[in-house]
Design goal:
- There is one protein chain.
- The chain is an alpha+beta fold.
- The protein has a single domain, classed as Roll (Nuclear Transport Factor 2, Chain: A).
- It is built from 4 helices and 6 strands, in the order H-H-H-H-E-E-E-E-E-E.
- The longest helix is centred in the middle third of the chain and has 26 residues, at 97-122.
- The chain is globular, with a radius of gyration of 16 Å.
């Protein structure tokens, strides 16, 4: 859930231009909405620095980029991320057997990351609990969001649905091996409530419910990890072949 993680999906960050895109406006009070918007976009698909564009009570990701904050006590894996594309590739790449195998593993790992991050945020304890599924900017994004919910006493329920996923780049022979996925996330199941129980997600626009996200995964120490995330300029899922 970010236009996440999309979770509502939706990641220090690949592209300052993409990262600076406005978070979605979901309800009346601006300060609260900004915090919520991050929530809805991280798993719906906002870019990596979405977690830093929250209310004034939360330091920005530029001020506290270290994902080893209170949201994660696990050792931080150092990764070097690629510059994320700003648009969906115009054609589907032809993949060889090794690329297809890497892509399948990356897709499976991404879905596990989405499930784990959604559950972690729903616990509302200020911890993301995704350090075994994510690293780098992606981990920092979820970490900051978990801390934001805790600070603002907001509650989140539901998880985004993966409507489709495509491998748009695969480099299984690189060091480290990497895969870039285009993922369409349906954020309609994700509900964010403020401290008074008010639903801050009910005014989302249709374009904010189904969002095209780009995720980079790398194989680190033998495991595929989500390391980066962005939203292309055109975030319509209609560009995908599913």
């Amino acid at each position: 859930m970010s236009k996440f993680l999309s979770t509502g999906v939706s990641f220090v960050r690949s592209s300052d231009a993409v990262r600076s895109r406005a978070l979605i406006a979901v309800a009346g009070a601006v300060v609260v909405v900004l915090a919520v918007v991050v929530a809805v976009r991280v798993f719906g698909g906002e870019s990596s620095n979405a977690a830093g564009q929250t209310s004034s009570s939360k330091p920005s990701s530029e001020d506290s980029p270290d994902p080893s904050s209170k949201a994660s006590s696990a050792p931080v894996k150092s990764v070097k991320v690629s510059k994320m594309p700003t648009s969906m590739p115009t054609s589907t790449p032809r993949l060889d057997a090794d690329q297809k195998a890497a892509g399948a593993k990356a897709k499976s790992r991404f879905e596990a990351f989405l499930t784990q991050s959604s559950a972690g945020l729903a616990r509302n304890n200020g911890k993301a609990d995704v350090s075994t599924y994510a690293a780098g900017p992606a981990l920092g994004e979820i970490t900051a969001l978990a801390a934001q919910y805790d600070n603002e006493d907001m509650k989140i329920s539901g998880a985004p649905k993966v409507l489709g996923a495509e491998v748009v780049a695969a480099k299984p022979s690189a060091n480290p091996p990497s895969v870039t996925l285009a993922v369409c996330l349906d954020n309609s199941p994700v509900i964010v409530r403020d401290a008074k129980g008010r639903n801050l997600s009910k005014r989302r626009l249709p374009s904010e419910l189904k969002v095209l996200n780009l995720y980079e995964l790398q194989q680190v120490d033998g495991s595929w990890l989500v390391v980066n995330h962005s939203i292309p300029a055109d975030s319509s899922c209609k560009q995908m072949n599913f």
